[in-house]
């Protein structure tokens, strides 16, 4: 009887340890994935800033390419200006990268060997599933970011329009 009790107790402690270690692995994957995403986005932030300025076709940046755009930003605004907007990007990218990395590891674990030992289809399916999972989980954040950016644009446009209208109409109305 004592033998059965010891065997049962070791199985229960092994199951508890396994659950704790799985939770610990998932937590580590979430943190590592999030940090990796933040590092990668911070690395390419200067190029992303130039891309956005070129896409907006601002008259200040319309004749610049990528390298001239980088130089122009550094000369006019300083080095740290290359990272404008990076903080907001970090708020969005951490949960996305964390969920994508963790989902990939989980899917890869469960799909391992289903399509054969030498096949890489299981990793392809795991990667595709991880991408879908990450987008599904973080889509509300992306929607909020887009709405806030649009609202900021509208407010800026209204303020700019008000001041432009005032500057053009005020003198002609005989108020100066």
From TrEMBL:
Transmembrane residue ranges: none
Membrane topology recorded in Swiss-Prot or TrEMBL: Multi-pass membrane protein
GO CC list: mitochondrial inner membrane
UniProt keyword list: Membrane, Mitochondrion, Mitochondrion inner membrane, Repeat, Transmembrane, Transport
PROSITE patterns on file: SOLCAR
Signal sequence coordinates: none
GO BP annotations listed: transmembrane transport
Compartment list: Mitochondrion inner membrane
Solcar repeats: 24-110
UniProt cross-references to InterPro entries, sorted A to Z: GDC-like, MCP, MCP_dom_sf, MCP_transmembrane
Stored PANTHER family: SOLUTE CARRIER FAMILY 25
Family that this chain belongs to: Belongs to the mitochondrial carrier (TC 2.A.29) family.
Name of the protein in question: Uncharacterized protein
């Amino acid at each position: 009887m004592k033998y059965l009790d010891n065997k049962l107790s070791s199985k229960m402690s092994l199951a508890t340890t396994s659950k704790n270690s799985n939770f610990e692995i998932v937590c580590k994957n979430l943190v590592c994935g999030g940090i990796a995403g933040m590092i990668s986005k911070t690395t390419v932030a200067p190029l992303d800033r130039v891309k956005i300025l070129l896409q907006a076709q601002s008259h200040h940046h319309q004749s610049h390419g990528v390298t001239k755009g980088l130089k122009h930003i550094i000369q006019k605004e300083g080095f740290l200006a290359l990272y404008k907007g990076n903080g907001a990007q970090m708020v969005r990218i951490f949960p996305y990268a964390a969920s994508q990395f963790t989902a990939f590891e989980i899917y890869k674990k469960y799909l391992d060997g289903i399509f054969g030992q030498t096949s890489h289809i299981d990793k392809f399916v795991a990667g595709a599933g991880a991408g879908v999972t990450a987008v599904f989980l973080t889509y509300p954040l992306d929607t909020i970011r887009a709405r806030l950016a649009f609202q900021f644009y509208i407010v800026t446009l209204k303020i700019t329009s008000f001041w432009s209208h005032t500057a053009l109409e005020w003198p002609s109305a005989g108020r100066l």
